[in-house]
Amino acid sequence: xxxxxxxxxxxxxxxxxxxxxxxxxxxxxxxxxxxxxxxxxxxxxxxxxxxxxxxxxxxxxxxxxxxxxxxxxxxxxxxxxxxxxxxxxxxxxxxxxxxxxxxxxxxxxxxxxxxxxxxxxxxxxx
Length: 126
Known about the structure:
Pfam family, one: Glyoxalase
Shape: globular
CATH superfamily: 2,3-Dihydroxybiphenyl 1,2-Dioxygenase, domain 1
CATH class: Alpha Beta
Number of domains: 1
Number of strands: 8
Number of helices: 2
Order of helices and strands: EHEEEEHEEE
Helix content: 10-25%
Structural class: alpha/beta
Protein name: VOC domain-containing protein
InterPro entries: Glyas_Bleomycin-R_OHBP_Dase (IPR029068), Glyas_Fos-R_dOase_dom (IPR004360), VOC_core (IPR037523)
């Protein structure tokens, strides 16, 4: 098997608000969109993100009403402090401000209007 890219798909109530949040604060752009669907991409190696609207018929019937929950989309960054400052300047208050874990990870969490959680992380040099 050869994997050519990676995509995370999440189901939300309001696709445009999640795609706008990702574009405005994380540099994604809309690659494809239709009613109830948006595919988001960056020009680097970040994972693509697809938003599906609740009830979208392309989803298996048992998943059509399941909203994003318990999923965290994580991005590893070079300067976590600068990213927290940037997000706050853009009006995004972290849902979890920077914290340091004993295993060497520093992270912060932000949450979009649909409850999609994004983690920004950096790791201590080994």
